[in-house]
From TrEMBL:
<dbReference type="InterPro" id="IPR034137">
    <property type="entry name" value="TOPRIM_RecR"/>
</dbReference>
<keyword id="KW-0234">DNA repair</keyword>
<dbReference type="Pfam" id="PF02132">
    <property type="entry name" value="RecR_ZnF"/>
</dbReference>
<dbReference type="GO" id="GO:0008270">
    <property type="term" value="F:zinc ion binding"/>
</dbReference>
<dbReference type="Pfam" id="PF21176">
    <property type="entry name" value="RecR_HhH"/>
</dbReference>
<dbReference type="GO" id="GO:0003677">
    <property type="term" value="F:DNA binding"/>
</dbReference>
<keyword id="KW-0227">DNA damage</keyword>
<comment type="function">
    <text>May play a role in DNA repair. It seems to be involved in an RecBC-independent recombinational process of DNA repair. It may act with RecF and RecO.</text>
</comment>
<dbReference type="GO" id="GO:0006281">
    <property type="term" value="P:DNA repair"/>
</dbReference>
<dbReference type="Pfam" id="PF21175">
    <property type="entry name" value="RecR_C"/>
</dbReference>
<keyword id="KW-0862">Zinc</keyword>
<dbReference type="Pfam" id="PF13662">
    <property type="entry name" value="Toprim_4"/>
</dbReference>
<feature type="domain" description="Toprim">
    <location>
        <begin position="81"/>
        <end position="176"/>
    </location>
</feature>
<protein>
    <recommendedName>
        <fullName>Recombination protein RecR</fullName>
    </recommendedName>
</protein>
<feature type="zinc finger region" description="C4-type">
    <location>
        <begin position="58"/>
        <end position="73"/>
    </location>
</feature>
<dbReference type="GO" id="GO:0006310">
    <property type="term" value="P:DNA recombination"/>
</dbReference>
<keyword id="KW-0233">DNA recombination</keyword>
Amino acid sequence: MNFSSKLLENAVAEFSKLPGVGQKTALRLVLHLLNQEKDEVERFGSAIVKLRNEILFCKVCNNISDQHTCEICTSHKRDRSTICIVEDTRDVMAIENTNQFNGVYHVLGGLISPMDGIGPADLEIDSLLTRIAPGEVKEVIFALSATMEGDTTIFYLNKRLKDFNINISTIARGIAFGGELEYVDEITLGRSIATRVPYENSLSR
């Protein structure tokens, strides 16, 4: 692609680094910004920089937050005896949109994937065990994507959690194998949370 401006080319190159954004889409986005008022573009840029510099991760559940402890973890209306384990913040948002879960979350920050060089030590697993150790947690729900990486992570976590006196369940498989939670419709995901089953039972299906 030939560019009439080096500044334009550099901007397109940066937008192209975003997931799912090709060069043509990046060019369309950059040209759109050029057609906006200068102060609007400055607000856009400032929001991105502010996000990167000031965003925090909840010290309890590892969810993205504006505070050191997120609103879900500090809410007195949430059931702290039930922890829903998810891959990332997108999954928290997807489950929250179903209005079917009133417990708290634990964000792993990824899934075990040897092919990508991601092992248990790279995830927020030790912090999960620390949360469960005091004995106040009664149930852990695995709400991970129905992929090979998701199942590998669940299998590993189940082995680590077996020594604790807690119920271990997984969301019902109304989700096709290979499906990721963020793309599942809210009704299906909501039912999967509400009709969760003991993890041991899911292995025989």
